[in-house]
Amino acid sequence: MEKPVRIIVGITGASGAVYGRRALEALKAAGVETHLVITKAAEMTARYELDMKAADIAALADHKYAIGDIAAPISSGSFQTGGMLIAPCSVKTMSEIATGVTSSLISRAADVSLKERRRLVLMVRETPLHLGHLRTLTQLAEMGAVIAPPLPAFYAEPQSLDDLVDQSVGRALDLLGVASPLAKRWGEDLEKGRRST
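Now predict its structure.
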């Protein structure tokens, strides 16, 4: 019997808590087992941006771990997963991962994903980027991480903020091999609609 796919979701304090929330909702709809870690800064950001408590976001996940729980299953390479998504990913977290510093469960789980050659997708939320940020992103890409900033795709003709969020989250889930109807796809959904008008 095949075990269910597991994805680790990290939510950091960068602006864009909605990306983490929407990813959890989409993963649940896809039947994917989720393992969640939220930073203290992310808890504050979720209150400001979404008017949600950490417990409300945690309720969307199958398993939730404290940021300091370095003994959690996701801190070990022997705990098999289909990869990890950090949505949004702060510059602090990005920098910790790039240097191998594992001072929190998010950076430890990300480090494990890289060492086990599992997919690590970082929805980095910062702009503008200085040279240090760019060098860190290059280092992460060289280590095997996928850098996927949540940038709007206007070819999808978004009609709302939800459409923009869905497109970015859908594409991030694509990178983890999770089928989701969130992303509108060029050559499929979009081209067909234009040809029929």
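Residues 77 and 115 are 8 Å apart (CA to CA).
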